[in-house]
Amino acid sequence: MKKSLIFLLFVIVIIFYLFNSSKQEYLIGSSLPLKGIMSDMGNSVKSGTELSLKIYGKKLDKKIRYQFLDDKYEPKLTQENIKKLYENNLFLLYGIVGTPTVKEILPFLNDNSIYLYAPFSGAKFLRKNKYVVNFRASYKDEVKKIINYLLEHNLTKIAVFYQNDEYGNEIYYDTYEILKKRNLNLLTAGAYKRNTFFITPAFNEIAKNRPQAIIMGSTSKVSAMFIKKYKKIDPKVVFCTVSFVNPDSLVKLLKNRDNIIFSEVVPYYKDKSIKEAVLFEKYFKKYYPEKKPTFFAFEAYLANKILLRAFDKLTFPYTPSHLVGIIKSTPSNFLKGVKIEYKNNQLLNKTYLFKYENNTFKELK
């Protein structure tokens, strides 16, 4: 009798969950810079996310709502936004932009068991947190590829220009450590304060040491200012940006794009040999005819496509941890032309180097 009663209660619980899951609204929350110095990146992430939702979200039998809050790339605002989302019955955090902003909210995530998927940061500490699932490759992956390319071209005098926070510091230390393993020294480095354009001390420190190449852990507008100024004293130096420096914005801000290497974590969104890129460009033109596609929008489109697949497959017990488990087990060929392999707490493990020539990005092999 007791076994029958227990079984009946179990069935009732299952039916209750199944019934309510079809009515439940799943809130996906994000905090990102929609205004200010980093607004181009934040709005690109928002556009790419909404694009994949328009294309692939129609078939879902679950009600999903996205909420994007502006933090102007200020960690304290990010913290406030996350608390608001949590109070509104947040199911999953997604697409937080920036290393210092993500680092600010990690204690709150850990204390409240909140999962974060696809932050736009390549920081090491995000590869070690059980509540974070990364989509993109790490900054270390990017810096390693940049340095390998530079050394193959006999450019050994390497400097770092970086933002003086968790993001820039990571680029600095990654560069230092990778060079050290190659029995080379970092020539020099110069830092500037986040969300400012005060680059003079950093510029002077780097300029006096005459590097052959400068790795940039900065933002697009600051990078453009630095490059314009530096090309006046040394037009031959090679500038190397990591993926947080928006290449689409940077080329618009510069007339002279010679000797710039752009590192990215996704392929070129206009690459006709990659089916996902073809689909992205086609639908981007359809839904956003007044906008230009970007690497950030393409990355967000891909990351959110994986998230929507996970929601489509989400069943009992309908928890964030269950959803995250589905994300981690995404088939390697799910994104056509972009290989998925979950390891080191990230789904993508390849990085790409580009140059800008004849109004297009060309991959450097």
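^ that was protein a. below is b, sequence first then the tokens
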Amino acid sequence: MDYSNYETYDFDHVSAFNMATGFKERSYQMHWHSYGEILLVGPGKTNIYKVGKNTYELIPDDIVLVWPMEMHAIVDADREKALVIQFSNSFMNSLFDLRRIMHLYRNLHIICVAAHPVLAGKLKTIILQMRDIFFSDSQGKEIRCCMLLMEFMLTLFEHRNELAPEIDDEPYGYTDDVMQRMMMVTEYIKNNLTADDLSQGTMAKMAGISRDYFSRIFKNAAGMNYSKWLNMIRLEKASELLSEEGRTLTEVAMLSGFQSIPSFNRVFREEKGMTPRDYRALFVRQTD
């Protein structure tokens, strides 16, 4: 298997904001990552994107929203002039209003310029402002871009009534209070991957809700069951550690919360398509 195009950019540990453009290739394989993306569709007659199980045929200036940890791919699209914004999940989680907006629009992935011309125009203007700042030599450009990212999210929120047919204010019937509890639990897990008991039942008790309710909320919000999500978080940590020098594979596995090397290797290969050793080799080649 050719791993040369495999995504290894551990964005959450670099900065809160990034922007990219100018890719010659018209496609990118199905993948996921812990950061979110906003894509401004480029010119051309063919622009096909996939998010989750849905495939979208888009036109220039449509906007694609990919939330953290969502599977997505570029099937066939202009990537040379399209703009890709990458934003840290940690940044989005730093303010409750941003978390609430991200939760509200969790199932919204496309802003079509034909259906929402005014909204799409406002969002495009913000994206172009981000571009001009990000690719400039000005100081404090990350802060300025993050401020515009917040403006982007606030603009989405201000148009929630217009987008109501495509979203649901409370799609799963739970409140901001419950969401805060769930986020508290997920932050605890991320910071305590080596804890003795991270079972779903124990985490439900920590959140103050029943195990069944916890399971239902978790699957709706994350798009996967708790066990799958926990493995994803462990793999995020393992990927971070594998990019560092001086740790053995056993240390990486244990610090990521895996109980054995065989289970670590199995889960890593299932989700990443390669062994932890092969993944580490990618970073060795990049630094040669």
